[in-house]
Specification:
The chain is α/β, with parallel strands linked by helices and 531 residues long. The protein contains 15 helices and 22 strands. The structure holds zinc ion.
């Protein structure tokens, strides 16, 4: 911290202050351009373009004096299984009284290949409302229905009675599957709540023909025993409820009013045949270390991470097929590259080491970070904290920092102090229903017990800034238009880099290791719990 301030003072003396923030912002943007231009083809996990992007990151790490911390260099190779649905020979149908009503793939529903589907499944359907069974919170949506051998149908929402991070945790596909498997279910049908869909069905369905991935390491399989995973278009969800005495609109109204939702068996059975092309690819995490200066603490690590991958080339939107991922998440990689560069230039020597990690496979389900957390390139017990940046959205000036995980660990104190020093306020996630805390790579670290934070440019609800963020999400999130031709507030990015840098240094200089708050649900993972 002190060295960083000294460099700032030097800059003041040499008359370059004022330019410095602009320099950071300009260099940040140059990294975004390098990673999100059309030649990078959207950096899909396992693609040659992603490999080129990983090599760019490795070269920048080297330039910033980081020690290689991959396997025999900066890169950490990971093997992924890939699956692609062959729709022409796949099918879905609702079977009632011996009569099959086909569902149109792509329109009514999709067979997700994030899990490896069985070739043929036919099973009864059981609707279970929010689909949650959490005895410690007295939530039991499974009461009164038989899930053994059934396919669970749920509305992908969580009751507001749960604190935000728990909504995020229990609402995740992996946690849900643990509950359904324990109850004997064999598959899932998830119906999105139209009010909390980040992107409309018409756009999300374009991605259904893309390969999905899982880690080849079988011990890291999130969906053991799951034979089928269906995503239902909410616009056609009533096909499931026909004859049940309920309508989707009525059930959704209960969810939106945060009222109890009934659970009941559905009259139809679901019949699925899934044809899948399977393969394997390799993709890489990139890791480098700024070595700490304290004789003891230098063997402990603050991990500063961001994901490098995006969606690659996919379905055309307005004639564009390249999903550049400029904000998601070239922007985050550019930020950590600038944090490393800035620490190098100021010759910062924090007490602990700072481990920079660019992870792959985030868009496939946070897979690269999951692999890193399970197979870290430094001793696992030596990782004291994780700071993650994913799509921090510098669309307007950084006056407020949105911090995911703010109230979970004493890193909250560090981020509050760091932000305050640069005149920025902090806020917890203003929209916990969007599950942001578990929707990026910090969560892979949380699940192995490491206190973590993720940050974005914040905003209050019902403000012009909130409207800008919402408009961005509706129009550009996971669309080809998340490219280099969009209005960005570069000064917000420069300031964000400054906050992450100062926060990483502050944590690296703490005398004690960061700790989970006693009240935190996630503390259990530090004590070895697995769910
Ligand atoms: Zn994304």
């Amino acid at each position: 911290m002190r060295r960083v301030l000294t460099a700032t003072m030097v800059a003041m003396l040499t008359g370059t202050i004022g330019l410095r923030g602009d320099d950071t912002a300009a260099r940040w943007w140059s990294h975004v351009e390098a990673l999100a231009n059309d030649g990078m083809e959207g950096r899909n996990t396992g693609s040659p373009a992603h490999k080129r992007a990983a090599e760019y990151v490795a070269a920048q790490f080297k330039k910033s004096g980081l020690e290689p911390a991959g396997v025999g260099g900066y890169l950490q190779p990971i093997t992924f299984k890939t699956r692609r649905i062959v729709e022409a020979t796949s099918s879905l149908a609702l079977v009632k009284n011996g009569k099959a009503e086909p569902l149109t793939l792509g329109t009514d529903a999709n067979i997700s290949v994030r899990v490896d589907p069985a070739p043929a499944v036919e099973a009864p359907l059981a609707f279970v409302g929010y689909g949650l069974h959490i005895p410690e919170r007295n939530i039991d949506d499974f009461a009164g229905v038989t899930l053994k051998g059934a396919i669970v149908v749920y509305i992908s929402s969580t009751p507001k009675s749960l604190p935000g991070p728990l909504q995020a945790h229990f609402g995740s596909a992996a946690e849900r599957w643990k509950m359904y498997k324990a109850a004997g279910a064999i598959g899932t049908v998830s119906i999105a709540n139209p009010k909390s869909m980040d992107i409309p069905w018409s756009r999300s369905t374009l991605a259904r023909l893309q390969p999905a991935m899982s880690l080849a390491d079988a011990t890291l399989d999130d969906a053991p025993g799951q034979q089928l995973s269906i995503t239902m278009n909410p616009a056609y969800a009533d096909k499931l409820f026909a004859g049940s005495g309920h309508t989707f609109a009525e059930l959704l109204a209960l969810v939106d009013a945060d009222k109890p939702v009934p659970s009941f068996a559905l009259p139809a059975r679901l019949k699925a045949t899934a044809a899948v092309e399977r393969s394997e690819v390799e993709s890489q995490n990139v890791a480098g270390i700024l070595r700490g200066s304290d004789p003891k603490r230098r063997d402990e690590f603050v991990v500063v991470s961001a994901h490098l991958d995006h969606l690659g080339i996919g379905g055309a939107v307005n004639g564009d097929t390249i999903y550049n991922g400029a904000m998601d998440n070239a922007s985050g990689i550019a930020a950590i590259l600038e944090v490393a560069a800035s620490l190098h230039e100021s010759n910062a020597k924090p007490a602990r080491s700072i481990l920079f990690v660019a992870v792959t496979g985030e868009e496939k389900g946070e897979l690269g970070s999951r692999y890193f957390a399970a197979h870290p390139t430094v001793p696992r017990a030596s990782i004291v904290a994780n700071l993650n940046t994913d799509m921090f959205l510098p669309l307007f000036p950084l006056k407020m920092l949105m911090v995911l995980g703010l109230d979970e660990s004493d890193l909250g104190t560090d981020v509050r102090a760091t932000a305050k020093a640069v005149g920025v306020t902090v806020q917890a996630d203003p929209e916990p229903q969007r599950n942001r805390f578990v929707r990026s790579d910090q969560y892979s670290f949380v699940k192995v017990g490491v206190p973590a934070l993720a940050m974005k440019v914040g905003y209050e609800v019902n403000t012009p800034e909130a409207a800008m963020a919402a408009k961005w999400t509706a129009e550009r999130y996971h669309a080809p238009s998340d490219d280099l031709n969009q209005p960005i507030d570069r000064s917000a990015a420069g300031k964000y880099v400054e906050v992450v840098r100062d926060l990483a240094v502050r944590i690296a200089n703490r005398m004690d290791r960061p700790k989970w708050n006693d009240s935190s649900f996630f503390k259990r993972f530090a004590n070895g719990a697995t769910h």
